[in-house]
């Protein structure tokens, strides 16, 4: 085992990275060596046992815990690991497979004191808390010691407090840093391997950043040179962390700028991030990792500066001087406790454990922690979002700024973050989901899987289903197109994709750590954001689509001073707030998702769309049939699917929908009259905020066109097909077509549209994300592209590509002409499909489709829920 492992160490060292953690087979081999250690290998073997095996409920941790437990019982022996040492090592495993053994050891006199000390600093107790409480009540002195230690928050007080002054060296990236910069999509396959994936951070050229190998390896040498100044690095940017909800972005940043975690291999925490604006999801993932994110003016901070940060005074100075380079106030003082605890999630779990112990011991709540402050109540009404979150907290409504932990009803996980979520679930010792429904998709990797993706496709479904989750199959399609059909009205959820933006209820997308926490515990931490109301009125004008309304939000926001394009000193009133959209109640739920989905591009915390009871009822009736069809098709976990069917049926029996109060308060109100949208609106290269009228960009030549992503539904493909059919010739552009689900694919095939796409020379992709994320196929370098995808960040769809975001209808016209059309040309084309719009924009109503109804009718619900 050692020879093979050392070869691996050498291979990784040649890449400039540390070895991988031990897997289960290596751990088994290590244990055999520990039983009969070879000469002169004692230090190496103990280091591997202590520091190179993942904690929690990883398979290797199971083997490690079993071996250490056997030593404590005398069933196994090692000259290097005494019984006392074995107990100490069990105490470093955080939770899961070690807990039962440590609790049993409270009854073993010789080892009980060590076990008590270990348990006193273990947070992931969950229901095992009651086993310790029971022993304490029965008179076990060591169990009493553990309970008192938890109540006294010794686990927290034993950790160092945030320093009064921190000296850091600035690593500054000017302009906007999005998560694609920190965690590039083409390297998504390596995200679970944090040290390897971190090599790709900032690998593309930009001002002031010097990649080691352009397009392949980021500025490792540049960062190492700055570290030679003797201080920890701090990431500084004008705008930091926009885009996808990738904890991999945080992982990469902290790999170079964070601190090692004792006994946890290949993962770092802590660190600092300074930004003029820090995107909300990225801010939260930094919190979760124990970092201190600070929003402040960074204009006086430059690459290589050595600075002193005064966290409690709220100022930054040049190192060793009393000048003031910038001042700040933290979002909340609770951040100090989060950093001390090692992250927001450890703080929440640990604080709850302390409160639980205090309650069990009839003590007052601990005053050790900085508690979230209650907001002063208002006599005003609540918005729709505030009511939804209130319902999830069993109150009428939640005021902005209030800390709460709403019940999470639905959780989504996709495949490029799924392996990280799996690892986070292991770290949380999760063996079963508490969230009512957790779903895993494979939409980002199924079309062009790498060997590591294939392994994920084979192993992750079992992991999810055995914990009570629902696992889709590779090739099924886009996560949101499926997850939306599992939603319940007026409930709260989350997901590990920034476009987890529910059209029913409300969702707060998050990084993989918080997604794992929500799935495990059934709740999530939330500082209730303020809301911005987008109120629509009027009627759509000829040729104007819902996608044009999506782009009208930034277009009119710019006019109202709510949004700017310039990165330095950027204004984005939507950032970190909830978009609440009214005036479009007649939309179907599928249509509403176009609006809620695009709230991600505004960096909003979430979105609500007010809909009619009829729209919601039609959707749920359709979805019940689809869920029953899934049962027949063998999807699991069946019990979870049946429970969700029952919940939908219960809603249909009453059909109650929440509405905002008339006197609800909003931070801003943006009024949009549909009559004022007289021509299509696109978002220009390469910024989803840069909304422009068609007349301002008409005439530019187009190389490639992409019709796909979660922003599309079957109606868009019918519209594209009808335009292409009337054209009837070879396209001057490269056209990509990727339907969102396999059900869309099957229906489009049945209706003859795949034949039309084929005759037009389109490249037809597997249902899923296709070009949208940029980790699978890509457009040609420096191509000009019309795309229906979600966002158009630099290099996302292709290296140096210039990407316009647009409707499927306009994209198709551009594909036919080989250029962006004029307004008149576009309107002339769409006349050809307006006469059949009722047929074109039909949606997948499964309760009206025979092949789904027949299978659904054969389902007998087995579970009483």
TrEMBL record:
Residues 168-382 form the Aconitase B swivel domain. The keyword Cell membrane does not apply. Residues 5-156 form the Aconitase B HEAT-like domain. Its cofactor is [4Fe-4S] cluster. It is an enzyme of class 4 (lyase). It comes from the Bacteria. Binds 1 [4Fe-4S] cluster per subunit. Residues 470-818 form the Aconitase/3-isopropylmalate dehydratase large subunit alpha/beta/alpha domain. One of its GO terms (biological process) is propionate catabolic process, 2-methylcitrate cycle. Pathway: Carbohydrate metabolism; tricarboxylic acid cycle; isocitrate from oxaloacetate: step 2/2; Organic acid metabolism; propanoate degradation. The keyword Iron-sulfur applies. It catalyses: citrate = D-threo-isocitrate; (2S,3R)-3-hydroxybutane-1,2,3-tricarboxylate = 2-methyl-cis-aconitate + H2O. InterPro entries: Acnase/IPM_dHydase_lsu_aba_1/3, Acoase/IPM_deHydtase_lsu_aba, Aconitase/3IPM_dehydase_swvl, Aconitase/IPM_isomerase, Aconitase_4Fe-4S_BS, Aconitase_4Fe-4S_dom, Aconitase_B, Aconitase_B_HEAT-like_dom. [4Fe-4S] cluster binds at residues 710, 769, 772. PANTHER family: ACONITATE HYDRATASE B. This is Aconitate hydratase B. It comes from Candidatus Enterovibrio escicola.
